């Protein structure tokens, strides 16, 4: 563990807590893409299947349980509990255009042709594009609530910090995972436009409107 | 090196 990965995990944790608090306090999921949240639930489910087979640490296990649990609660909030406030007319991204290519790529490009490894690879590839329905929805509605912007900033920062973690681990531990690094770069690049708007607008108290 | 060692990252 290093500071970049720890701060990254905390940023990820914060993003999920911000989202749940927004939903619970405002009793509304307005502006939130249910499709992205479904993709995140798939990402965690396919990535953490080793939850019961391999133990790394209390931290690792508890974070995995938290991520899986909260991802399903979030999907439940959107499609059940706060369904009347779900803006399905603006959440129209065709996720099959993400899942099918990502599934094919995971099958072809992986570190080891085993079920667990292919599912892990699928999860890594899928996570890199899972935010697209949310960014698409923000561009369609034309703006995002500031709390949603904070959620997106924390979520985008987590993988950017993981990139620093991989640089650190490469130089100090000789650890290198090309699949995770490439997918992490794609994932972080997708946030660049948003990061720019967040820093130039939200931090000055303005609202975000995409496309800029 | 390939990374099919046990995954210790989230």
TrEMBL record, chain A:
Gene Ontology BP annotations: protein retention in ER lumen; protein transport; vesicle-mediated transport
One GO CC term, this protein: endoplasmic reticulum membrane
Compartments (UniProt record): Endoplasmic reticulum membrane
Coiled-coil ranges from the UniProt annotation: none
Major subcellular site: endoplasmic reticulum
Family per similarity comment: Belongs to the ERD2 family.
Protein name stated in the entry: ER lumen protein-retaining receptor
Record organism: Dreissena polymorpha (Zebra mussel)
């Amino acid at each position: 563990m290093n500071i970049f990965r720890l701060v990254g995990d905390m940023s990820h944790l914060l993003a999920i807590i911000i989202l749940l608090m927004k939903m619970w306090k405002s009793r509304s999921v307005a502006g939130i893409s249910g499709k992205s949240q479904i993709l995140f639930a798939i990402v965690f489910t396919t990535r953490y299947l080793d939850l019961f087979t391999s133990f790394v640490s209390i931290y690792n296990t508890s974070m995995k349980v938290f991520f899986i649990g909260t991802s399903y609660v979030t999907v439940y909030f959107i499609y059940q509990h706060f369904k009347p406030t779900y803006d399905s007319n603006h959440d129209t991204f065709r996720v099959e255009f993400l899942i099918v290519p990502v599934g094919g790529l995971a099958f072809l490009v992986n570190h080891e042709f085993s079920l667990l490894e292919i599912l892990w690879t699928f999860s890594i590839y899928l996570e890199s594009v899972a935010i697209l329905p949310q960014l698409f929805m923000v561009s369609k509605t034309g703006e995002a609530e500031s709390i949603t912007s904070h959620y997106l900033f924390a979520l985008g920062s987590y993988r950017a910090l993981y990139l620093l973690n991989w640089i650190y681990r490469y130089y100090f531990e000789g650890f290198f995972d090309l699949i995770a690094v490439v997918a992490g770069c794609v994932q972080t690049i997708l946030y660049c436009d948003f990061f720019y708007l967040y820093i130039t607008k939200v931090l000055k108290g303005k609202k975000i409107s995409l496309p800029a | 090196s390939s990374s099919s060692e046990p995954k210790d990252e989230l």
